Amino acid sequence: MKILMIGHRGYVGPVAARHLARTLPGVEVHGLDADWFAGSEAAPFPDDAFASQRKADVRDLTEADFTGFDAVVALAAVSNDPIGKEFEDATADINSAAALKAAKAAKAAGVTRFVFASSCSMYGAGADGLRKETDALNPLTAYARSKVATEEGLRPLAGGGFMVTSLRFSTACGASPMLRLDLVLNDFVATALRTGRIEVLSDGSPWRPLIHVEDMARAIEWALVRGGADLVEVNVGSQDWTWQVGQLARDVAAVLGGVAVEINTGAAPDRRSYRVDFSRFAALAPDHQPRKDFTQAVRELAGQVRAIDFADKAVRESRFIRLNVLRGHVAGGRLDGALRWTA
Predict the structure, then answer these.
(1) What is the H or E stretch that residue 211 is in?
(2) Which pTM does this prediction carry?
(3) What is the CATH number of domain 2-178+210-239+274-292+324-331?
């Protein structure tokens, strides 16, 4: 199987490529990325997991870029709510318009599988029950709205030899060569190690389903080999990895030891609170279920964070916060306001 991974130099790409190389005999993974985060590696990038790598903007791809590939894994995105708020037009352009343009070009080129990294954040606010794939969506941010728009555009493309899988991932976490610390669990671990405390900015009550990046890779593998319907939209995660944010902070502190937890009980409620039903994923992919142990995940991440040179910067001011990197590129004139390279 020859796979084109779009956005391969992000947080998920290197972990997914290494996993696919181990589990799919004869696989070739080719990478394509705008390379916004070069220099932000937390560990050596696994170049040997890729048959080729190319720097390109997903917005510029044409049918020719997909010729000869069997499958596409679409990871490229403006990746979180703070970036989406600051670069709202670029978020819609990259996460939705460009993703759909790529899917259409891939289908025209004869690609047979398209795997889209979607998000459970589309449910937005729903702490009163477990959200199923058939429930109404309530996207509260530009990032979440972009995922909804992409799924809507992918539906009519499925069929005619083109299999579409939209993986509605829980909030990512865990160690990666392209580490991000703007994810809730990762932030808690890093700030705990750097300051001896975890500061929860909300009142601690919002619910979040989490998924380790290695388990995201397992779900991507399933999407690349699954049979069944031409279109599948599925929540990816597990009930065992669903926390209220305050309890997550306490659990991280318990693993690390000697860490204080401070919860802002006077904070305004965070409406981004949702619990998700993962029973469909369990039924469709019984051999690709999440299996990462929480304690192991925290300890592995802690080991990676301890090895990082933060250049005396606080975690939330570091190069491992994606918004900081993009702001720096824009301020330096290297990226324009649309997040395109200027040279």
Answers:
(1) strand 207-212
(2) 0.96
(3) 3.40.50.720
